[in-house]
């Protein structure tokens, strides 16, 4: 900083080092202690507000070491830890420590990865990260793409590129209107809720979604998909894209991607794969056939903060033809002086954001630190633990194992003695398991989420956690049964 200017925001070299060393030391201790305490404290919003306090904005500055010590206390003592070995809840992985260090480095340099001139090296690192992610899942490194915040944005980015590529070209100037045939998109009934948002946001509308039935294995029925496409063509609708799931969020099922890709070629439709959770498992050699067809996709969504163990936020959109993103998102206002060279890669032309943080560095660093073989080991272990979870539930007389795919197991607690007649059984079990889940989440010994499968309310464990072990899975089974018995006894006493 210039010697003739002082600033309230500045820290001296000594002060920055002191606070930084304290922070790194305390984070190191936290990482070493994961598993000793609860996953979460289960405190209510009112309790947390009371702890945080209601003080007004300070008029004068507070010392950096005081702020950081309080922040550490607040976050370490009152958070949900997805790095905890018994966190099997929503699909947020335990973050690789190198990612946390990479985020600190990003914040220090603070590149704006919207334009090459504002982020020369960061842009090149993001380009390399995109190539590595494509290679990782087994598609051509010629795929282009962009790092985004997460699954919603990764899928939105691809959805709008598909609409630009397959809908009437006049839409870009004239907008969606009744002068065009109604657009139609096709997906399994298990597709994540992002598709409903995208249809609403981008002019297709909820009525433009064709929800295709699933077969007994949970995969989209290819026969129903083709019947629906041909019926729409006969009735004057305009099919534009099909979405295949590569690991649906409830059960981890992978659709028949090869058959979906073939249909898309036959009917000239955009083939998008939502692999936000599951597609990194394509790196496992024995699962190669399960993911057959991903190379036919026009676009793929994947989230490094799910199964590549990156800290939040890190999503990614990959596209077979990078020009489709430029056709969709590129604008050239007069105040942009960003195209002095044809070889410059400006990420504002590839997605929704102009100003963009440097998300790629933590992914780039982890990909190198762990390596392909390391990921094969870690992802494979997560799958093995999920299979163990399913097997233990199958063997237990008070548990019913429902599904197991990739690293997701669903199950439910089924007491040996239930009140009521057979007709009331399912309703009773649904209520019981919902109450059980709420109690487990509140107490924090384990954190699971839920899925509803063929009308059954299930507990759902998704393992994307490099700290989880066989011992944790065995203990989780015991925790579920113990708490299930307690909830069931309370419900019986109420009746």
Automatic annotation (TrEMBL):
Molecular function, one GO term: pyridoxal phosphate binding
Cofactor(s), names only, from the UniProt record: pyridoxal 5'-phosphate
UniProt KW keywords: Aminotransferase, Decarboxylase, Lyase, Pyridoxal phosphate, Transferase
Modified residues (N6-(pyridoxal phosphate)lysine): 306
SUPFAM superfamilies: PLP-dependent transferases
Any one biological process term the GO annotation gives: amino acid metabolic process
PANTHER family on file: GROUP II PYRIDOXAL-5-PHOSPHATE DECARBOXYLASE, MIP05841P
Homology family: Belongs to the group II decarboxylase family.
Protein name (database record): Aspartate aminotransferase family protein
Organism of origin: Chryseolinea soli
């Amino acid at each position: 900083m210039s010697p003739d200017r002082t600033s309230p925001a500045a820290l001296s070299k000594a002060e920055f080092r002191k606070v930084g060393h304290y922070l790194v030391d305390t984070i190191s201790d936290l990482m070493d202690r994961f598993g000793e305490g609860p996953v979460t404290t289960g405190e209510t919003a009112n309790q947390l507000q009371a702890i945080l306090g209601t003080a007004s904005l300070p008029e004068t500055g507070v010392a950096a070491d005081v702020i950081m010590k309080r922040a550490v206390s607040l976050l370490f003592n009152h958070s949900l830890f997805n790095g905890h070995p018994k966190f099997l809840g929503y699909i947020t992985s335990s973050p690789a420590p190198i990612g946390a260090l990479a985020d600190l480095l990003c914040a220090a340099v603070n590149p704006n990865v919207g334009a090459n001139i504002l982020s020369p090296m960061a842009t090149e690192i993001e380009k390399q990260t995109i190539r590595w992610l494509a290679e990782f899942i087994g598609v051509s490194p010629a795929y282009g793409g962009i790092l985004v915040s997460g699954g919603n944005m990764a899928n939105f980015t691809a959805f709008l590129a598909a609409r630009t590529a397959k809908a009437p070209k006049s839409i870009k100037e004239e907008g969606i209107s009744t002068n065009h045939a109604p657009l139609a998109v096709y997906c399994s009934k298990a597709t994540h809720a992002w598709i409903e948002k995208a249809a609403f946001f981008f002019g297709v509308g909820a009525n433009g979604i064709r929800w295709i039935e699933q077969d007994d294995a949970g995969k989209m029925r290819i026969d129903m998909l083709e019947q629906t496409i041909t019926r729409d063509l006969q009735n004057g609708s305009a099919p534009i894209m099909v979405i295949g799931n590569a690991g649906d969020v409830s059960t981890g099922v992978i659709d028949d991607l090869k058959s979906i890709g073939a249909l898309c070629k036959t009917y000239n439709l955009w083939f998008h794969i939502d692999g936000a959770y599951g597609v990194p498992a394509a790196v496992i050699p024995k699962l190669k056939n399960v993911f057959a067809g991903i190379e036919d996709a026009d676009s793929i969504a994947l989230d490094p903060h799910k199964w590549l163990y990156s800290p939040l936020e890190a999503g990614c959109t990959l596209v077979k033809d990078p020009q489709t993103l430029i056709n969709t998102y590129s604008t050239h206002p007069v105040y942009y002086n960003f195209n002095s060279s044809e070889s410059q890669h400006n990420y504002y032309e590839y997605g929704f954001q102009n100003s963009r943080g440097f998300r790629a560095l933590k992914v780039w660093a982890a990909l190198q630190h762990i390596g392909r073989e390391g990921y094969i080991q870690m992802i494979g272990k997560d799958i093995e633990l999920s299979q163990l979870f399913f097997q233990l539930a199958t063997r237990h007389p008070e548990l019913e194992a429902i599904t197991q795919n990739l690293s997701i197991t669903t199950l439910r607690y089924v007491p040996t003695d239930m009140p009521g007649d057979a007709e009331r059984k399912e309703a009773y079990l649904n209520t019981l398991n919902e109450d059980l889940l709420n109690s487990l989440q509140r107490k924090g010994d384990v954190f699971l989420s839920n899925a509803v499968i063929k009308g059954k309310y299930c507990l759902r464990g998704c393992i994307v956690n490099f700290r989880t072990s066989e011992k944790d899975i065995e203990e989780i089974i015991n925790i579920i049964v113990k708490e299930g018995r307690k909830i069931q006894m309370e419900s019986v006493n109420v009746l």
